[in-house]
């Protein structure tokens, strides 16, 4: 029996040593994997971000068409009013009125 006890004790010690060695190896593997990951992260280039696309050009409404230029000054308007009154009162004929009106508007 002492022989069996010695064998059993040896087997128990060897089994325990094997389990402990497996745990140590597993712990070391995790430790080295963590260190490798940290080193890879430190060596990795910083992420670069693309610039946002430029904003589209603003769309403006077309300007309103300019009113036709009238060079009628207050003096010319007064002359046209007087001319109209002379025509209505019968002093000027239609032909005379049109001729004078053209002169006033021509400037």
TrEMBL record:
Q: What is this protein called?
A: SHOCT domain-containing protein
Q: Ranges of Basic and acidic residues compositional bias?
A: 27-37
SHOCT domain boundaries:
78-105
Which InterPro entries is this protein grouped with?
Answer: SHOCT (IPR018649)
**Origin species:** Kribbella capetownensis
Q: Where is this region: Disordered?
A: 24-67
Q: Which stretches does UniProt call biased (Low complexity)?
A: 38-49, 58-67
Out of the domains of life, which is the source?
Bacteria
């Amino acid at each position: 029996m002492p022989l069996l006890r010695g064998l059993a004790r040896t087997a128990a010690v060897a089994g325990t040593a094997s389990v402990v060695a497996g745990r140590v190896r597993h712990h070391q593997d995790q430790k080295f994997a963590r260190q490798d990951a940290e080193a890879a992260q430190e060596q990795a280039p910083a992420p670069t971000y693309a610039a946002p696309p430029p904003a589209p050009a603003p769309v403006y409404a077309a300007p309103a068409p300019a009113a036709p230029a009238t060079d009628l000054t207050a003096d010319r308007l007064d002359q046209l009013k007087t001319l109209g009154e002379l025509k209505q009162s019968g002093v000027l004929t239609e032909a005379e009125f049109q001729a004078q009106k053209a002169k006033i508007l021509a400037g």
